[in-house]
Amino acid sequence: MRVLVLGGTEFISIHLVRALVRAGHEVAALNRGRRTERLPAGATTIVCDRKDHAAVRKALAGVSVDGLVDVTYAPTTGEDVEAVLDALDGRLGHALFVSTCRVYDHAQPIPFDEATPRTLYWGEYAKNKIAGEDALLRRHRERGLPVTIVRPTHVYGPMNTRNNETFVFDRLLRGRPVLLPGDGGWLRQFGHVQDLAEAMLNLLGRRDAFGQAYNVMGEEVITQAGFVELIADVIKRPAELVPLTPSAGGPAVPFGQNLVYDCHAVHTTAKVRALGIRPVYTLAAGLAQTFEWYMSEGLDRRDVDFAADDLLLARAR
């Protein structure tokens, strides 16, 4: 297949490009050309800012692809998604859009499946992702364009741009306590980036996936506190957990980049599993592999600002 990836050099998209190249596909990545050295041999770059719709039309004039994977978020609006579809109109086989489980109304009972109502519970991010989904689904209904929506949650693994698992690594390796928001009892679900990439690879071109949305993540559900304790077990470091409830109007308890929120995030994956698509990594195995990457990159020696942690610890004691 000839596949165009919007993005291609950051976290999810670079793992996807590598998976596509390994599988023998012809891959081009459309991005601003800032990290082209990350692309594997055999992948090409189309240099373009997707927010510049005129530039997108020019860059994709005459381009025909069997598959499109829209990964990048700039932030990306519904109009930005439409611009790419317009630029490839009549020359696109299957469009796959990487959305998020944050389109769901997290005030609903868990677990969330693909039919859970979508709302703006998560604000502007949810608004943009819903608009992107709707742009593709509208093309599917009105023009018959084959489209598929993928909804991951808390993607982790090597090259993660979210400071979640690395947040815990940083503290445990330095013998520091990990502050918990409240009792750390909110449930979280994670998905390894390579499992997500392989799932998207396997969805591309599948007729039974056209017009469908899929939750794609690991099967395990764990509390915030359990996440820290699992990492401590994996990397063989002691863990001191300090539950803290911030005072009204006070600073939030730092806990990863986006793991603090006060609700559960639990999702079913039965729909994608019915296609035979299942994760390879358990959470423990994925964290162990991510820790190996963290150490190989020398991230254990980086400077980390613990001022926010120290301020809250001083107040608590």
Quick tags:
single chain; alpha/beta; 17% strand; globular
What does it look like?
Strands 3-2-1-4-5-6-11 form a 7-stranded parallel beta sheet, with helices on both faces. Strands 7-10 form a two-stranded parallel ribbon. It has a two-stranded parallel ribbon with strand order 8-13. The protein is α/β, with parallel strands linked by helices and 317 residues long. It has 10 helices and 13 strands. The mean pLDDT is 96. The protein has helices at 11-22, 53-59, 78-87, 123-143, 165-173, 193-203, 224-235, 270-273, 283-296, 307-316, and strands at residues 2-6, 26-31, 44-47, 65-70, 92-98, 147-151, 155-156, 178-181, 187-189, 191-192, 212-215, 221-223, 241-244. β4, α3 (78-87) and β5 (92-98) form a beta-alpha-beta unit.
**Percent in helix:** 25-40%
| Distance between the ends | 60 Å
Number of helices: 10
Biggest sheet features: 7 strands, parallel
Oligomer designation: single chain
Share of residues in strands: 15-25%
Structural class comes to alpha/beta
Poorly predicted sequence stretches spanning 5 or more consecutive residues? none
What does the radius of gyration come to?
20 Å
Q: Give me the side-by-side strand order of the main sheet.
A: 3-2-1-4-5-6-11
Which descriptor suits the 3D outline? globular
Can I get a quick summary?
This protein is an alpha/beta fold. The protein has helices spanning 11-22, 53-59, 78-87, 123-143, 165-173, 193-203, 224-235, 270-273, 283-296, 307-316; strands at residues 2-6, 26-31, 44-47, 65-70, 92-98, 147-151, 155-156, 178-181, 187-189, 191-192, 212-215, 221-223, 241-244.
